[in-house]
Amino acid sequence: MSSKAQFTPPSLVLATIGLSLATFMQVLDTTIANVALPTISGNMGVSSDQGTWVITSFAVSNAIALPLTGWLSRRFGEVKLFMWATLLFVIASFMCGISTSMPELIGFRVLQGMVAGPLYPMAQTLLIAVYPPAKRGMALALLAMVTVVAPIAGPILGGWITDSYSWPWIFFINVPIGIFATLVVRQQLKERPVQTSRQPMDYVGLITLIIGVGALQVVLDKGNDLDWFESNFIIIGTAISAIALAVFIIWELTDKHPVVNLRLFAYRNFCFGTIVLVGGYAGFFGINLILPQWLQTQLGYTATWAGLATAPLGVLPVLMSPFVGRYATKFDLRILAGLAFTFIGASCYMRSGFTTDVDFFHIAMVQLFMGAGVALFFMPTLTILLSDLPPQQIPDGSGLATFLRTLGGSFAASLTTWIWDRRAIQHHAYMSENVNVYAPATRHAIDQLGGANPSTYAKLEQMVNGQAFMLSTVDYFIMMTWIFAGLIVIVCFAKPPFAAKAGPEAAGH
Length: 509
Known about the structure:
The protein is mainly α. The protein folds into three domains: 1-199, MFS general substrate transporter like domains (Growth Hormone, Chain: A); 202-258; 263-509, Growth Hormone, Chain: A (Up-down Bundle). It is 74% helix and 0% strand. It is built from 23 helices and no strands. Helix 9 runs antiparallel to helix 10 (136-164). It is globular, with a radius of gyration of 24 Å. The two termini are 21 Å apart.
């Protein structure tokens, strides 16, 4: 590493722009489709929960590819891997844009997620390598800023593109960005010394991981449509997933070169830190998936306005991130993480008081409030989970935490949509039982809507459906309030000191 650390590109600014742009593009793609889901689902003729596959297929394949990053970088070199991953991401994005059916789009999203796997870890590694030691903290703060801004920009950009042009353009915009980033990185880093080595690949671990996680995601995504364990498909899928994951865990704990080093969970802070990271990120991901969908499908927001309503979430993280990075270590990080969960949990409690009459300003202000929690979330939890690992295990720990965090987001997307739809159906059934033409309240509502005719009954059904989803949304946010309260308790089990043992790698996102 010493020879690589001395390398300085012709222009540090250009190298940083190239690496950051590719990272921005990849992180943006985790959320840019969120507000476009109702439009994509409608155009493809599928239900909203089937549309969620556009999100989950990307996240799962991205998570599965993450553990391969270390092996690929040692085999082919960091710069070459980064450039090829970016170019393949561009091609996969273009193919997503020209897809004409949901299976086709999901297939290309899987490919897109898979080739995106190495982008963030490689951008981080290369930034650390090209910056002088004294300025590496600044480089990583910039990268952290990119990863905070991109998910916020996603819904706004996705909404504007969907409303002003058409949804395929949310994928086509990656083409010029990716090509530019590749050309810049190649120009700036082509002279960087490369050291490659052939290391054994843990094929058993990789194959069981793909089968286990893939089957579990299919079960979560298809369960609602197939009535869960009433379906042989779901029963068989669950059995395959359980067996594959059991083999995976046993193999990884005994193999000399595991693709995922599960033995790291023996370290206390890594164990509890990873639990709160995955739980907190999964909750954050679910909230940002359900909110735009509810605003569009139930409150009649356009994709652009749904994006703007959720956007204030990013204001405080952008303003606070430099200060959190500089001063956080002066405090007990468990307190900061606890404050993060308190802010996010309180924002969920506020949303549980929403009605169908809630205005844009109120929604935006709650998002702004939640942003304070997001700003305090990542840095303390990452520092806690890496704090008790030996220095040589820091890269593995960072990689494993990123893998599980990405997987958590994917599973949260499926479960969130399922819970939301399921509770809406239950509320609809309950309310429908109490709506009959003989009840005075129902007769009054029918008179108000224009008398007994098919169009009035359709309006009445629409009102009941809207209220059912409103109650389901309230239920979801009450549940999330309790989950974040639970995370405050879990983070207290971590044990000081939380000082990082390794250099800049410990700041890995």
